[in-house]
Design brief:
Elements: H1 3-13, E1 16-18, E2 21-27, H2 34-48, H3 50-53, E3 55-60, H4 65-74, E4 79-83, H5 84-92, E5 106-121, E6 137-139, H6 146-158, E7 167-169, H7 173-181, E8 187-191, H8 197-206, E9 209-211, H9 216-224, E10 229-233, E11 245-257, H10 262-274, H11 276-280, H12 291-294, H13 305-313
Parallel strand pairs: 2-3, 2-4, 6-7, 6-8
Antiparallel strand pairs: 1-2, 4-11, 5-8, 5-9, 5-11, 10-11
Helix pairs in contact: 7-8, 10-13
Length: about 325
């Protein structure tokens, strides 16, 4: 891009020029979450190589996926880290976005870490698998929460109702670990990236364990919905949980508007993929990332032109 084109882009899209470079913004989440870490790490990689491409990056705290999607659509953010299911809903104007028109300009760059549907149970609960929840005391999550939404999908797939359990509690995520340890519930669910402080609290304070979520109904959810993926929670992340556990979940994905300059998106993708091994070492949630899966897992909108160009050049997708 020549300097005249660059200046025009600055005026048109509101980019900020910082020390001669174009600054891009990434919406993340709260400081306690993995989204913020993902955004900061991506920005660190970009800022460490600014002299090579003339781009700087800033990660912004936000209220999460829905907020990021709205801001990407309005132009308030260049990029956003979002759940793969909310990405789908925004693109189709459904669920959380049923009061807005479908975002036809939404584009994907790549997926990041998985956010597994995590079933945490007391050691004395005799729950080893999702199927064992029948007749137990379960925290299904507060209405409107991510874990409640996913739990309702699971319950529908299994043909379960609230009275399937001896107690269907509706505590928010921040309260459920102590409820588990105090034996108010025997199981709790959480859709979250790992390691997670709430899960760590339950496993460290009362020896809770993570149970498997699998079976034909779960396979059907993954096979029939592009925003779900099979997932594995690695062993050794939490006390008393040495073995990997199968489940399913969503993916954190990086998205932009199709209006964002393709050269900028190309730079972001190239920087991340050329530094992937370093990124994988910077947080446990990123340890299992592979280039091949990052360009397909959880992506329910078209690839951005800039991302597609890089993947084609690298032979990761066909031209």
């Amino acid at each position: 891009m020549n300097i005249r084109g660059l200046l025009a882009a600055v005026v048109l899209l509101g980019w900020q020029v910082v020390a001669g470079a174009v600054e891009i913004s990434i919406g993340t989440g709260s400081q306690a979450g993995v989204y913020y870490q993902a955004g900061r790490i991506i920005c660190r990689m970009i800022n460490n190589t600014t002299e090579q491409h003339g781009v700087t990056c800033k990660a912004h705290l936000s209220n999460g996926s829905v907020s990021n999607l709205n801001d990407v659509r309005s132009g308030g953010l260049d990029l956003g880290v979002v759940q793969s299911d909310t990405q789908y809903y925004a693109a189709h104007g459904s669920k959380l976005f049923n009061d807005t028109s479908p975002d036809k300009e939404l584009r994907a760059l790549f997926s990041v870490h998985s956010e597994p549907f995590t079933l945490v149970v007391r050691q004395d609960s005799r729950i080893n698998h999702l199927n064992d929840l029948v007749g137990k005391r379960v925290n299904i999550g507060n209405p409107g929460s991510g874990q409640r939404a996913t739990m309702e999908v699971v319950m529908e797939a299994k043909g379960w109702k609230k009275d399937t359990f001896s107690l269907a509690n509706e505590l928010p995520a921040w309260q459920q670990s102590m409820a588990l340890c105090h034996d108010r519930v025997q199981a709790m669910v959480y859709t979250v990236g790992h390691p997670n402080p709430s899960v760590a609290k339950a496993t460290s304070l009362c020896g809770a364990k993570i149970a498997e979520v699998s079976g034909p109904e779960i396979d059907g959810l993954v096979n029939n919905n592009s925003f779900y993926v099979h997932a594995v929670i690695p062993g050794g992340l939490y006390p008393a949980n040495p073995d990997p556990v199968k489940t399913f979940g969503v993916n954190a994905t990086l998205v932009a508007s199709s209006k964002l300059d393709a050269d900028l998106v190309y730079t972001v993708v190239k920087t991340v993929f050329e530094n992937l091994e370093t990124i994988k070492s910077m947080h446990p949630a990123f340890a299992t990332l592979t280039k091949e899966r990052m360009i397909v897992d959880g992506l329910s909108v078209p690839l951005h032109e800039g991302a597609r160009r890089y993947y084609q050049e690298q032979g990761l997708i066909a031209k």
